[in-house]
Amino acid sequence: MIPKECKRLAEVDFPIAEVSRHSAREKSIRHGHPSTLHLWWARRPLATCRAVLMGLLLPDPCDPLCPGDFKESARKALGQLRGVGKSDEDLRRALLAFIADFSKWDNSSNQTLLEIALALVRAVYPDGPPLVVDPFAGGGSIPLEALRLGCEAFASDLNPVACLILKVMLEEIPRHGPKLAEELRRVGAEIKRTAEKELAALYPKDPDGATPIAYLWARTVQCEAPGCGAEIPLMRSFWLCKKPNRKRALRCRIEKNAAQAASLLRESLRTSSHHRGFLPHWKAEGATYFVTFRLAGTLPKIVLDRLEQDRRTQEESLLRRFGQIPEDERRKLNDLFSAKVEEYLDAGAGECWLAGVVRSFGAR
Ligand SMILES: C[S@@+](CC[C@H](N)C(=O)[O-])C[C@H]1O[C@@H](n2cnc3c(N)ncnc32)[C@H](O)[C@@H]1O
What we know:
The structure is a single chain. This protein has helices at about 10, 15-25, 45-55, 70-80, 90-100, 110-125, 140-150, 160-175, 180-200, 260-270, 300-320, 325-345, 355-364, and strands at about 130-135, 150-155, 220, 230-235, 240, 250, 270-275, 280-285. It has about 375 residues and is mainly α. The strands form four sheets. The chain has a two-stranded parallel sheet with strand order 1-2. Strands 3-4 form a two-stranded antiparallel sheet. The longest helix is centred in the middle third of the chain and has 22 residues, at about 180-200. It binds S-adenosylmethionine (SAM). S-adenosylmethionine binds near residues 136, 142 and 157.
């Protein structure tokens, strides 16, 4: 047993330049690194944790209180790599060089280095492995490295995401091995299939047949310039990706919105419009019109609920502004939401019974 008063290696020296170099390089490792398991923002490099743990577990051989047994075992273990000089300073240098070497990512599963590291820790704790406690374990770099060095590890965190990462990385993966990855793929594929089926109505195909995988949601304002009425999305940036060779951005194409077009048309035709229970909604003097019905699936409840919620939010904001909603604002709101409904219907969700008919009609 090392006396408490005996200094640990990290208290006297540390191969900081090499460990920093290995730690910085680790950032770009994508394959097989725990960082690919789940993003964790404050994750510490494994190289640093491994080296610091070694530096804290091993005693300084130059300390007069460092037991001779340890020095003898350490010389023997390190001797497998290279000869170690006779003095305590030589042993210290050899230990620091080993720590620097072993902290390198490529060496993390090098069997020879692993066995030397385990032998060194065993030489300090011959009666059983030490316990490393990390109550703020986050992505788990410290307890993972403690396990690698043959210690017992206790890890906890306030954040439940961190706890899940810790549980999977420190308990489940060692327990189940590659079987866990297969199971994860199987369950993931099942969830994907179910989600695709349930969400299909919310992701109608684009006119070119492509299926959108995400929508960007933005509040919009309507241009108040006379005769404009364009709907402008309030977005900080239209950039989607700025990586070199993969630059992608949205182009904002402003069109006069359907509501504005509708109200201009209504003015020129001297039409009257009704909403909700009235059919037809539009009555245009001297014009021919027809009435269409939509099928229930063309506008799923979840979409209707979302529109209702948006509408309520806008009504509340108008109420806050005016006390009660002025007639022209209410009309604008009606037009805006009718346009949103039309836009969704035009996207062709649901069964679209007439789609084939319209196509063949168009071809003729
Ligand atoms: C700097 S991070 C730890 C990073 C970790 N060493 C790694 O390599 O990923 C600090 C962690 O402390 C956790 N934390 C903060 N306050 C806490 C508390 N009172 N109890 C437990 N965990 C806490 C945070 O959730 C965060 O994960």
